[in-house]
Amino acid sequence: MLSEADPAEANAHADAWRKRDLAVLWHPCTQMREHPDTLPLVPVRRGRGVWLEGVDGRNYLDAVSSWWVNLFGHANPRIAAAIARQAGELEHVILAGFSHEPGMALAEELLALAPREADRPPLTKVFYADNGSAGVEVALKMAFHHFRNRGVEGRTRFIALHNGYHGETLGALSMGDIPLYRKIYAPLLLQPTFVPSPDAWDALPGEGAEACALRAAEALADVLAVQGGETCALILEPLVQCAGGMRMYHPAYLRRARELCDEHGVLLIADEIAVGFGRTGTMFACEQAGIQPDFLCLSKGLTGGFLPLAAVLTREEIYESFLDDSRERAFLHSHSYTGNPLACAAARETLAIFRDEPVLERNRATAARMAELAAPLAGHPNVAEVRQTGMILAIELVAERTSRKAFAPEQRAGLRAYRHAIAHGVVLRPLGDVLYWMPPYCIEDDALQQLATVTRGAIDAAVHVES
Ligand SMILES: *Cc1c(COP(=O)(O)O)cnc(C)c1O
């Protein structure tokens, strides 16, 4: 056992670990060339609450909830115990032809929580997948297949938003519009029609977020006027385009998009994989627009950050179109681990925490405190904007504040910020030059203060140019 008192020994242990890791592991979303020197790999031996404990004996504040999945802290005892209980009963069973309590009960609980519009038939069916991208694939295939089942052959197209992100598998990647991820694979991908993002960052001088959103909605109306009849679905991330740099928009867009989809018989897929489960201030982001989608895709926070699981919720009418004597009409999509009981048990316990504790109410206070602590950063000459939606706060770094001129890519502003933060015990993983806070909901005030202080330093480190 490592002696925590001896920093030299701890560092040597961490170095040996890094060597061993890099000999065999290919890490996600990483230019592996940057390891081990440019990017310090952080070996973690334990997690507790918002803290990750490194094998170097240091603690790291997980300000990004480990890619937005963690809600109630690492190694949350309630969720850990629920998984252990379930593992002792039934770890997994094929979900085709079989049923289990966690899968059934989770579906009931999710449907009861789902966004609802008074005049619209509610979401009544749940299909499970193993991760967010797979959930998006399910929704895309179901939307297309639904029209086929109804005898409609011509609806083969999708509409997606500029700067959107829906995952990395080829179908999901097709719907995304982030060149860094998409461009190289473009020859392999579906070609949705991309419409302007309602992103408030793009507001014209004096325009305001709502007018900006409605202007984007008019562009959607124009596209639907031309190809509405050939389109099966519109896919979007409600309120925050997370991977696209935590860009935020006014809910008016969602209301108008919902109306336009109805007008043209186009299905609406709400990808709440990142924004669901309280991230934006409400349980689901769609609630802030008062809309109900035809497909609701959930993952990430669904299991509190413990296990991969996705759920796709849809309406009875869509489900019914798949019912027939032929297998051709059926949704013959499956993943080996569909509806895994351990993951479902983790998700049920996560929802139980929402029921037992005033999570959203507490988050309102935490979000207000985040705003307060970030406010002074807005005055920094290299900060173009500090924006926030609920428990997501983003800081847009620029080379020049008034013109919003971006940093040259060679400056590696985001990387410098990352390195500074890690060196000071905070995990900030910028999206390009956008720093953001998306902490586990259990973050406390001293940690928030540390986060603000280190962020300030990270901004200075990002903009500092070595001669
Ligand atoms: C992360 C994410 C996905 C993909 O989920 P994975 O589990 O990483 O495949 C899809 N959509 C949105 C909005 C996401 O943020």
UniProtKB/TrEMBL annotation:
Name assigned to this protein: Adenosylmethionine-8-amino-7-oxononanoate aminotransferase
Q: Which GO terms describe its cellular component?
A: cytoplasm
Catalytic activity, as annotated: (8S)-8-amino-7-oxononanoate + S-adenosyl-L-methionine = S-adenosyl-4-methylsulfanyl-2-oxobutanoate + (7R,8S)-7,8-diammoniononanoate
Q: In which pathway does it act?
A: Cofactor biosynthesis; biotin biosynthesis; 7,8-diaminononanoate from 8-amino-7-oxononanoate (SAM route): step 1/1
Which superkingdom is the protein from?
A: Bacteria
Which Gene3D superfamilies does this entry report, sorted A to Z? Aspartate Aminotransferase, domain 1, Type I PLP-dependent aspartate aminotransferase-like (Major domain)
A GO molecular function term, named singly, is:
adenosylmethionine-8-amino-7-oxononanoate transaminase activity
- Gene Ontology BP terms: biotin biosynthetic process
Pfam family name, one: Aminotran_3
The entry marks the following residues as binding substrate, namely W67, Y165, K300, S334, R429
Its assembly, as annotated, is: Homodimer.
Source organism of this protein record: Alkalisalibacterium limincola
What residues does the record give for site: Participates in the substrate recognition with KAPA and in a stacking interaction with the adenine ring of SAM?
Answer: C29
Q: What is its cofactor? A: pyridoxal 5'-phosphate
